[in-house]
Design goal:
The complex is a heterodimer of chains A (330) and B (76).
Chain A (H helix, E strand, L loop, with lengths): L5 E8 L4 E3 H5 L6 H8 L3 E3 L6 H15 L9 E5 L10 H8 L7 E4 L5 H15 L4 E9 L9 H4 L4 E9 L6 E11 L7 E2 L22 E2 L1 H22 L9 E4 L4 H11 L10 H4 L6 H11 L8 E8 L3 E10 L1
Parallel strand pairs in A: 4-5, 4-6, 11-12
Antiparallel strand pairs in A: 1-7, 1-8, 2-3, 6-7, 8-13, 9-10, 12-13
Helix pairs in contact in A: 3-4, 7-8
Chain B lengths: L2 H13 L20 H15 L5 H6 L3 H11 L1
Classes of the chains: A alpha+beta (330), B mainly alpha (76).
Amino acid sequence: MSNFAYIVGVGHFVPDKILTNQDLEQMVDTSDEWITTRTGIKKRHVVQDETCSDLALKASQQALQQAKMDPAELTHIILATFTPDAYVPNGSTVLQTKLGLNQIPCFDINAACTGFLYALELARNICLVNPKAQVLVVASEVLTSRVNFQDRSTCVLFGDAAGAVIVSGQKRENSFQITDVCLKADGSLGPLLSVIGGGSSHPPRLGLSIDEKYFVQMQGQEVFKHAVRSMASICEEILSKNNLSSQDINLFIPHQANIRIIEALAKKLKLPLSNVYVNVQDYGNTSAASIPLAFSEAYQKGKISSGDKVLLVAFGGGFTWGASVLDFIE
Amino acid sequence: MSVEEKVKEIVADQLGVSVDQIKPESKFVEDLGADSLDLTELIMAMEDEFDVEIDDDKAQEIRTVQDAIDFIKANT
Protein backbone atom coordinates (compact mmCIF):
# COMPACT_ATOMS: atom_id res chain seq x y z
CA MET A 1 0.00 0.00 0.00
CA SER A 2 1.29 3.45 -0.92
CA ASN A 3 1.64 6.08 1.81
CA PHE A 4 0.10 9.03 0.06
CA ALA A 5 -2.60 10.10 -2.33
CA TYR A 6 -2.31 13.31 -4.33
CA ILE A 7 -4.55 16.12 -5.53
CA VAL A 8 -3.61 16.45 -9.20
CA GLY A 9 -6.24 18.92 -10.38
CA VAL A 10 -8.38 21.66 -8.84
CA GLY A 11 -11.26 23.75 -10.17
CA HIS A 12 -14.23 25.82 -9.12
CA PHE A 13 -17.31 27.49 -10.48
CA VAL A 14 -19.80 30.08 -9.28
CA PRO A 15 -23.03 31.10 -11.04
CA ASP A 16 -23.03 34.50 -12.78
CA LYS A 17 -25.80 36.19 -10.84
CA ILE A 18 -24.61 38.30 -7.91
CA LEU A 19 -26.63 39.28 -4.86
CA THR A 20 -25.07 42.26 -3.06
CA ASN A 21 -25.77 43.50 0.46
CA GLN A 22 -27.63 46.38 -1.18
CA ASP A 23 -29.87 43.88 -2.97
CA LEU A 24 -30.61 42.20 0.37
CA GLU A 25 -31.48 45.58 1.91
CA GLN A 26 -34.42 45.61 -0.53
CA MET A 27 -35.54 42.13 0.56
CA VAL A 28 -35.27 42.08 4.37
CA ASP A 29 -34.69 44.54 7.22
CA THR A 30 -30.90 44.61 7.14
CA SER A 31 -28.06 46.89 6.08
CA ASP A 32 -24.75 46.66 4.30
CA GLU A 33 -23.08 47.98 7.47
CA TRP A 34 -24.67 45.30 9.67
CA ILE A 35 -23.79 42.46 7.28
CA THR A 36 -20.25 43.71 6.70
CA THR A 37 -19.34 44.21 10.36
CA ARG A 38 -20.94 40.95 11.54
CA THR A 39 -19.84 38.69 8.69
CA GLY A 40 -17.39 40.38 6.31
CA ILE A 41 -19.64 39.39 3.38
CA LYS A 42 -20.23 41.98 0.63
CA LYS A 43 -21.82 39.80 -2.06
CA ARG A 44 -22.64 36.23 -2.96
CA HIS A 45 -23.26 34.38 -6.23
CA VAL A 46 -26.64 32.73 -6.61
CA VAL A 47 -28.19 30.42 -9.18
CA GLN A 48 -30.98 31.46 -11.50
CA ASP A 49 -32.01 28.13 -12.98
CA GLU A 50 -28.78 26.13 -12.54
CA THR A 51 -28.81 23.05 -10.32
CA CYS A 52 -26.23 21.50 -8.00
CA SER A 53 -25.01 19.15 -10.76
CA ASP A 54 -24.66 22.05 -13.23
CA LEU A 55 -22.28 23.86 -10.88
CA ALA A 56 -20.52 20.58 -10.08
CA LEU A 57 -20.03 19.87 -13.79
CA LYS A 58 -18.32 23.21 -14.46
CA ALA A 59 -16.01 22.88 -11.45
CA SER A 60 -15.20 19.26 -12.40
CA GLN A 61 -14.38 20.19 -15.99
CA GLN A 62 -11.98 22.85 -14.78
CA ALA A 63 -10.28 20.38 -12.41
CA LEU A 64 -9.99 17.78 -15.22
CA GLN A 65 -8.57 20.38 -17.56
CA GLN A 66 -6.01 21.48 -15.01
CA ALA A 67 -5.01 17.86 -14.46
CA LYS A 68 -4.86 17.41 -18.27
CA MET A 69 -7.16 14.45 -17.85
CA ASP A 70 -9.97 13.03 -19.90
CA PRO A 71 -13.15 12.32 -17.90
CA ALA A 72 -12.87 8.70 -19.04
CA GLU A 73 -9.79 8.32 -16.83
CA LEU A 74 -11.88 8.80 -13.68
CA THR A 75 -12.58 5.72 -11.58
CA HIS A 76 -14.99 7.14 -8.97
CA ILE A 77 -17.11 10.24 -8.34
CA ILE A 78 -17.83 11.50 -4.84
CA LEU A 79 -20.13 14.49 -4.48
CA ALA A 80 -20.30 16.35 -1.16
CA THR A 81 -23.54 18.28 -0.85
CA PHE A 82 -26.72 18.69 1.15
CA THR A 83 -28.51 20.38 -1.73
CA PRO A 84 -28.42 17.76 -4.53
CA ASP A 85 -30.64 18.05 -7.62
CA ALA A 86 -32.88 15.34 -6.14
CA TYR A 87 -32.96 12.74 -3.37
CA VAL A 88 -32.92 9.97 -5.96
CA PRO A 89 -31.04 9.67 -8.24
CA ASN A 90 -28.13 10.95 -6.21
CA GLY A 91 -26.26 14.00 -7.44
CA SER A 92 -23.07 12.19 -8.38
CA THR A 93 -24.86 9.90 -10.85
CA VAL A 94 -26.47 12.96 -12.45
CA LEU A 95 -22.99 14.45 -12.69
CA GLN A 96 -21.63 11.19 -14.14
CA THR A 97 -24.10 11.41 -17.03
CA LYS A 98 -23.32 15.07 -17.61
CA LEU A 99 -19.63 14.20 -17.80
CA GLY A 100 -20.49 11.63 -20.48
CA LEU A 101 -19.46 8.74 -18.25
CA ASN A 102 -20.98 5.41 -17.45
CA GLN A 103 -20.35 2.50 -15.08
CA ILE A 104 -17.96 4.10 -12.61
CA PRO A 105 -19.25 4.13 -9.02
CA CYS A 106 -20.80 7.37 -7.80
CA PHE A 107 -21.96 8.40 -4.38
CA ASP A 108 -22.94 11.52 -2.46
CA ILE A 109 -21.95 12.31 1.07
CA ASN A 110 -23.46 14.86 3.40
CA ALA A 111 -21.35 16.36 6.16
CA ALA A 112 -22.72 19.87 5.62
CA CYS A 113 -19.92 22.47 5.48
CA THR A 114 -17.30 19.81 6.27
CA GLY A 115 -18.46 17.66 3.34
CA PHE A 116 -15.45 18.35 1.15
CA LEU A 117 -12.95 17.19 3.77
CA TYR A 118 -15.00 14.05 4.48
CA ALA A 119 -15.08 13.30 0.74
CA LEU A 120 -11.35 14.01 0.46
CA GLU A 121 -10.62 11.48 3.21
CA LEU A 122 -12.77 8.86 1.44
CA ALA A 123 -11.02 9.51 -1.87
CA ARG A 124 -7.60 9.37 -0.22
CA ASN A 125 -8.39 5.97 1.26
CA ILE A 126 -9.69 4.63 -2.06
CA CYS A 127 -6.37 5.68 -3.62
CA LEU A 128 -4.29 4.20 -0.82
CA VAL A 129 -5.96 0.83 -1.32
CA ASN A 130 -5.96 1.13 -5.11
CA PRO A 131 -3.12 3.38 -6.35
CA LYS A 132 -4.60 3.29 -9.86
CA ALA A 133 -7.74 5.05 -8.69
CA GLN A 134 -8.45 8.60 -9.92
CA VAL A 135 -11.30 9.99 -7.89
CA LEU A 136 -13.28 13.10 -8.74
CA VAL A 137 -14.16 14.82 -5.47
CA VAL A 138 -16.60 17.62 -6.01
CA ALA A 139 -18.46 19.76 -3.51
CA SER A 140 -21.41 21.65 -4.89
CA GLU A 141 -24.14 23.55 -3.10
CA VAL A 142 -27.20 25.45 -4.15
CA LEU A 143 -27.61 26.77 -0.62
CA THR A 144 -30.09 29.39 -1.74
CA SER A 145 -32.59 26.58 -2.39
CA ARG A 146 -32.60 26.02 1.39
CA VAL A 147 -32.32 29.58 2.61
CA ASN A 148 -35.34 31.35 4.09
CA PHE A 149 -35.25 34.77 2.46
CA GLN A 150 -37.58 36.08 5.16
CA ASP A 151 -35.06 35.32 7.93
CA ARG A 152 -32.62 38.20 8.02
CA SER A 153 -30.29 36.44 10.47
CA THR A 154 -29.48 33.64 8.00
CA CYS A 155 -30.37 34.73 4.47
CA VAL A 156 -27.47 37.17 4.26
CA LEU A 157 -24.90 34.47 5.01
CA PHE A 158 -25.07 32.01 2.15
CA GLY A 159 -24.20 31.66 -1.53
CA ASP A 160 -24.04 29.03 -4.27
CA ALA A 161 -20.81 27.51 -5.65
CA ALA A 162 -18.90 24.36 -6.51
CA GLY A 163 -15.30 23.27 -6.14
CA ALA A 164 -13.61 20.09 -7.36
CA VAL A 165 -10.36 18.19 -7.04
CA ILE A 166 -9.01 15.06 -8.67
CA VAL A 167 -7.45 12.69 -6.14
CA SER A 168 -4.99 10.19 -7.58
CA GLY A 169 -2.83 7.42 -6.23
CA GLN A 170 -0.03 8.61 -8.52
CA LYS A 171 2.04 11.73 -8.08
CA ARG A 172 2.31 14.08 -11.06
CA GLU A 173 3.80 17.47 -11.76
CA ASN A 174 2.11 20.14 -9.64
CA SER A 175 0.54 17.75 -7.16
CA PHE A 176 -0.63 18.33 -3.64
CA GLN A 177 0.40 15.45 -1.43
CA ILE A 178 -2.45 14.78 1.00
CA THR A 179 -0.22 14.52 4.03
CA ASP A 180 -3.01 13.99 6.53
CA VAL A 181 -6.73 14.39 7.13
CA CYS A 182 -8.46 14.49 10.55
CA LEU A 183 -12.24 14.30 10.90
CA LYS A 184 -14.59 14.65 13.87
CA ALA A 185 -18.29 14.88 14.64
CA ASP A 186 -20.57 15.53 17.61
CA GLY A 187 -24.21 14.66 16.96
CA SER A 188 -25.38 15.96 20.32
CA LEU A 189 -25.04 19.51 18.98
CA GLY A 190 -26.98 18.83 15.77
CA PRO A 191 -30.07 20.93 16.61
CA LEU A 192 -27.97 24.12 16.67
CA LEU A 193 -27.69 24.07 12.86
CA SER A 194 -30.27 22.19 10.84
CA VAL A 195 -32.44 21.78 7.75
CA ILE A 196 -35.13 19.39 8.95
CA GLY A 197 -37.99 19.76 6.50
CA GLY A 198 -38.39 16.96 3.95
CA GLY A 199 -36.53 14.43 6.10
CA SER A 200 -38.34 11.50 7.71
CA SER A 201 -38.55 13.43 10.99
CA HIS A 202 -40.49 16.18 9.24
CA PRO A 203 -41.83 14.52 6.11
CA PRO A 204 -43.55 16.37 3.34
CA ARG A 205 -47.24 15.58 2.94
CA LEU A 206 -49.45 16.30 -0.02
CA GLY A 207 -51.25 19.57 0.53
CA LEU A 208 -49.10 20.54 3.55
CA SER A 209 -47.39 23.87 3.18
CA ILE A 210 -43.65 24.41 3.41
CA ASP A 211 -42.59 25.88 6.76
CA GLU A 212 -39.34 27.41 8.05
CA LYS A 213 -38.01 23.97 8.99
CA TYR A 214 -37.38 23.39 5.27
CA PHE A 215 -34.65 26.01 5.41
CA VAL A 216 -31.37 26.51 7.23
CA GLN A 217 -32.00 27.24 10.90
CA MET A 218 -29.08 28.26 13.03
CA GLN A 219 -28.27 29.41 16.55
CA GLY A 220 -25.63 31.78 15.27
CA GLN A 221 -23.78 32.66 18.46
CA GLU A 222 -23.62 29.08 19.74
CA VAL A 223 -22.40 27.91 16.33
CA PHE A 224 -19.79 30.69 16.35
CA LYS A 225 -18.41 29.49 19.68
CA HIS A 226 -18.22 25.85 18.66
CA ALA A 227 -16.84 26.68 15.21
CA VAL A 228 -13.91 28.68 16.58
CA ARG A 229 -13.05 26.20 19.33
CA SER A 230 -13.49 23.03 17.28
CA MET A 231 -11.53 24.30 14.30
CA ALA A 232 -8.73 25.61 16.53
CA SER A 233 -8.45 22.33 18.38
CA ILE A 234 -8.48 20.11 15.28
CA CYS A 235 -5.82 22.33 13.67
CA GLU A 236 -3.65 21.99 16.76
CA GLU A 237 -4.24 18.24 16.72
CA ILE A 238 -3.34 17.69 13.06
CA LEU A 239 -0.29 19.97 13.35
CA SER A 240 1.07 18.23 16.42
CA LYS A 241 0.36 14.77 14.95
CA ASN A 242 2.54 15.75 11.98
CA ASN A 243 5.23 17.43 14.12
CA LEU A 244 4.33 20.84 12.74
CA SER A 245 3.56 24.19 14.31
CA SER A 246 1.34 26.91 12.90
CA GLN A 247 4.55 28.73 11.88
CA ASP A 248 5.21 25.95 9.34
CA ILE A 249 1.97 26.69 7.47
CA ASN A 250 2.41 28.85 4.37
CA LEU A 251 -1.26 29.13 3.53
CA PHE A 252 -4.19 28.57 5.86
CA ILE A 253 -7.55 28.02 4.14
CA PRO A 254 -10.35 27.95 6.70
CA HIS A 255 -14.03 27.40 5.94
CA GLN A 256 -15.34 30.72 4.64
CA ALA A 257 -18.41 31.32 6.78
CA ASN A 258 -17.72 34.56 8.55
CA ILE A 259 -14.67 36.83 8.75
CA ARG A 260 -15.10 37.10 12.51
CA ILE A 261 -14.74 33.32 12.89
CA ILE A 262 -11.70 33.35 10.60
CA GLU A 263 -10.04 36.16 12.56
CA ALA A 264 -10.79 34.57 15.94
CA LEU A 265 -9.39 31.26 14.66
CA ALA A 266 -6.22 32.81 13.23
CA LYS A 267 -5.65 34.60 16.53
CA LYS A 268 -6.05 31.39 18.53
CA LEU A 269 -3.61 29.60 16.22
CA LYS A 270 -1.19 32.55 16.22
CA LEU A 271 -1.29 32.65 12.43
CA PRO A 272 -0.66 36.02 10.77
CA LEU A 273 -3.66 37.11 8.67
CA SER A 274 -1.27 37.51 5.73
CA ASN A 275 -1.04 33.69 5.60
CA VAL A 276 -4.81 33.23 5.71
CA TYR A 277 -6.79 32.96 2.49
CA VAL A 278 -10.07 34.87 2.68
CA ASN A 279 -12.74 35.17 0.00
CA VAL A 280 -15.88 35.18 2.16
CA GLN A 281 -16.44 38.81 1.12
CA ASP A 282 -17.11 37.72 -2.48
CA TYR A 283 -19.07 34.48 -2.04
CA GLY A 284 -20.54 34.22 1.48
CA ASN A 285 -20.76 30.78 3.05
CA THR A 286 -21.03 28.17 0.30
CA SER A 287 -21.04 25.19 2.72
CA ALA A 288 -19.18 22.15 1.37
CA ALA A 289 -18.00 24.13 -1.67
CA SER A 290 -16.29 26.73 0.50
CA ILE A 291 -12.93 24.98 0.97
CA PRO A 292 -12.37 23.76 -2.62
CA LEU A 293 -13.59 27.13 -3.95
CA ALA A 294 -11.05 29.00 -1.81
CA PHE A 295 -8.34 26.42 -2.47
CA SER A 296 -8.84 26.53 -6.24
CA GLU A 297 -9.00 30.32 -6.31
CA ALA A 298 -5.84 30.64 -4.20
CA TYR A 299 -4.05 28.18 -6.47
CA GLN A 300 -5.12 29.97 -9.65
CA LYS A 301 -4.02 33.29 -8.19
CA GLY A 302 -0.54 31.86 -7.63
CA LYS A 303 -0.75 32.01 -3.83
CA ILE A 304 0.75 28.54 -3.46
CA SER A 305 4.40 27.86 -4.34
CA SER A 306 6.52 24.74 -4.53
CA GLY A 307 7.23 23.29 -1.10
CA ASP A 308 4.35 25.15 0.55
CA LYS A 309 2.36 23.57 3.30
CA VAL A 310 -1.37 24.27 3.17
CA LEU A 311 -3.71 23.75 6.12
CA LEU A 312 -7.43 23.32 5.40
CA VAL A 313 -10.07 23.35 8.13
CA ALA A 314 -13.86 23.25 8.08
CA PHE A 315 -16.78 23.12 10.48
CA GLY A 316 -20.46 22.59 9.84
CA GLY A 317 -23.83 21.12 10.69
CA GLY A 318 -23.82 17.83 12.53
CA PHE A 319 -21.69 19.14 14.05
CA THR A 320 -18.92 17.88 11.82
CA TRP A 321 -15.45 19.29 11.52
CA GLY A 322 -12.15 18.37 9.98
CA ALA A 323 -8.72 19.50 8.88
CA SER A 324 -6.13 18.50 6.29
CA VAL A 325 -2.46 19.22 5.67
CA LEU A 326 -1.34 19.33 2.03
CA ASP A 327 2.19 19.65 0.65
CA PHE A 328 2.57 21.23 -2.76
CA ILE A 329 5.14 19.49 -4.93
CA GLU A 330 5.91 21.21 -8.21
CA MET B 1 -3.08 39.80 38.47
CA SER B 2 -6.48 40.29 40.12
CA VAL B 3 -9.73 39.15 38.49
CA GLU B 4 -10.61 42.83 37.93
CA GLU B 5 -7.36 43.54 36.09
CA LYS B 6 -7.54 40.36 34.03
CA VAL B 7 -11.15 41.04 33.00
CA LYS B 8 -10.25 44.58 31.96
CA GLU B 9 -7.33 43.26 29.96
CA ILE B 10 -9.56 40.77 28.13
CA VAL B 11 -12.19 43.43 27.44
CA ALA B 12 -9.52 45.82 26.13
CA ASP B 13 -8.08 43.12 23.88
CA GLN B 14 -11.42 41.89 22.52
CA LEU B 15 -13.05 45.28 21.99
CA GLY B 16 -9.96 47.21 20.94
CA VAL B 17 -10.33 49.88 23.64
CA SER B 18 -7.70 51.12 26.09
CA VAL B 19 -7.75 49.84 29.68
CA ASP B 20 -8.21 53.41 31.02
CA GLN B 21 -11.54 53.66 29.20
CA ILE B 22 -12.89 50.63 31.03
CA LYS B 23 -14.74 51.34 34.26
CA PRO B 24 -16.54 48.72 36.39
CA GLU B 25 -19.88 50.26 35.40
CA SER B 26 -19.00 50.33 31.67
CA LYS B 27 -21.68 48.61 29.60
CA PHE B 28 -20.19 46.45 26.85
CA VAL B 29 -22.69 47.42 24.17
CA GLU B 30 -23.66 50.99 25.04
CA ASP B 31 -20.33 52.28 26.41
CA LEU B 32 -17.68 50.12 24.76
CA GLY B 33 -19.26 49.61 21.34
CA ALA B 34 -19.54 45.81 21.42
CA ASP B 35 -21.83 44.00 18.97
CA SER B 36 -23.41 40.59 19.51
CA LEU B 37 -20.41 38.67 18.19
CA ASP B 38 -18.02 40.75 20.34
CA LEU B 39 -20.06 39.65 23.36
CA THR B 40 -19.77 36.01 22.27
CA GLU B 41 -16.01 36.42 21.85
CA LEU B 42 -15.73 38.15 25.24
CA ILE B 43 -17.57 35.31 26.94
CA MET B 44 -15.34 32.79 25.13
CA ALA B 45 -12.17 34.61 26.20
CA MET B 46 -13.34 34.72 29.82
CA GLU B 47 -14.30 31.03 29.73
CA ASP B 48 -10.83 30.19 28.43
CA GLU B 49 -8.97 32.44 30.87
CA PHE B 50 -10.84 31.50 34.05
CA ASP B 51 -11.77 27.93 33.09
CA VAL B 52 -15.49 28.48 33.71
CA GLU B 53 -18.53 27.70 31.61
CA ILE B 54 -20.88 30.60 31.02
CA ASP B 55 -24.11 29.30 29.49
CA ASP B 56 -26.22 31.41 27.16
CA ASP B 57 -28.76 32.50 29.78
CA LYS B 58 -26.01 33.63 32.15
CA ALA B 59 -24.18 35.35 29.31
CA GLN B 60 -27.29 37.44 28.57
CA GLU B 61 -27.15 38.80 32.13
CA ILE B 62 -23.53 39.93 31.87
CA ARG B 63 -23.91 43.47 30.57
CA THR B 64 -21.21 45.40 32.41
CA VAL B 65 -17.59 44.87 33.35
CA GLN B 66 -18.66 44.51 37.00
CA ASP B 67 -21.24 41.83 36.03
CA ALA B 68 -18.41 39.83 34.48
CA ILE B 69 -16.12 40.27 37.49
CA ASP B 70 -18.91 39.24 39.89
CA PHE B 71 -19.79 36.17 37.82
CA ILE B 72 -16.20 35.00 37.70
CA LYS B 73 -15.59 35.56 41.40
CA ALA B 74 -18.75 33.63 42.24
CA ASN B 75 -17.96 30.73 39.90
CA THR B 76 -14.23 30.09 40.23
